[in-house]
Amino acid sequence: MRFAVLLLLVCTAARAAAVVTDGLLPNGNFEAGPPKTDLVNGTVVKGGNAIPNWETSGFVEYIESGHKQGDMLLVVPQGAHAVRLGNEASIRQKLAVARGSYYAITFSAARTCAQAERINISVSPESGVLPMQTIYGSNGWDSYAWAFKAKLDVVQLVLHNVGIEEDPACGPLVDAVAIRTLYPPTLSKGNMLKNGGFEEGPYFLPNASWGVLVPPNIEDDHSPLPAWMIMSSKAVKYVDSAHFRVPEGTRAVELVGGKESALVQEVRTVPGWTYRLTFAVGDAADGCTGSMVAEAYAARAIVKVPYDSKGAGGFKRAVLDFAAVGNRTRIVFQSTFYHMKADGTLCGPVIDDAKLVGLKKKPAARRLML
């Protein structure tokens, strides 16, 4: 009898929590919608379990692409449906995960009519707030990544809009919620940097040609780019070779925040020893044109790498030699300037293929652009 009860509890828990696999969550694109009898005025979701695989609370709307709200036309980036989180609205889904492992959530979101929209994302006991004041995607949608460490075997992912608007329907649209297991990168031969090619990172949504925004560490305790931190106040954009041009491999980072964001990794060094940092600077072939300058810092050394972008892809390589002044040294990449595409969206230089090696003997200091 005890065994039967235990088996029943295990089966019930399995049905209640989706087993995590890389990709969209069950009904993560919201294409399976509620019955029409559970929609008030055609869009407002009635009942907490009306949308398959999701629980909802607050003012949640089920939106079809092309839906009009006054003079505003709501567009869905993938498929035909999305949800809109109005005042104090939430969507949540239970996930069966491996305790102690790291995961990255990726989802797409767009602003509608609120002035200061943001999304609270949480996987108990961790949470973060992702502001949406800056739009980076040319179609009004952005994809966001957020990482967490699983503290339990079953966790609950919650996306929540904390806004209080006069119009309760004002709030962000959410679509295409996915997950990817993050594997802590190890050192490879000939490189003191981990994940220097940025191949390990969050999930790319299918046909999402606008990349994935990686938030600064003030908004996420765990970086979706393993071994790297995003410092300061703005995000960087994670890009892939399926939709962009990258210098090496299949993934890279576009510095879209000017000096308001920095890509940082801290490494162990020996004071007085000399090290050489090499990396690639280019453009993502996303229409970002003009004279760019990417900066790299290490210890007391700096190199500024000019790159004249035609917006069609390409790259150059740079070298920075430096002498360590402490037991740990921060390797930092930044864009000197803000850049905008013709449609007004932010863009910037691409960083890829970063390598750090120790030199056998101390050479004369040099800063080279190859």
TrEMBL record:
- Signal peptide stretch: 1-18
Which Pfam families does the record match to this protein?
A: DUF642 (PF04862)
Which is one Gene Ontology cellular component term of this protein? Answer: plant-type cell wall
Ranges of residues in domain DUF642: 23-180, 192-354
Q: Which domain of life is it from?
A: Eukaryota
Compartments (UniProt record): Secreted, Cell wall
Keywords in UniProt for this one?
Cell wall, Glycoprotein, Secreted, Signal
Which GO MF terms are attached to this record?
Answer: enzyme regulator activity
Q: What is its main location?
A: secreted
- List the PANTHER family hit by this protein, alphabetically: OS01G0611000 PROTEIN, OS02G0527500 PROTEIN-RELATED
* Protein name as annotated: DUF642 domain-containing protein
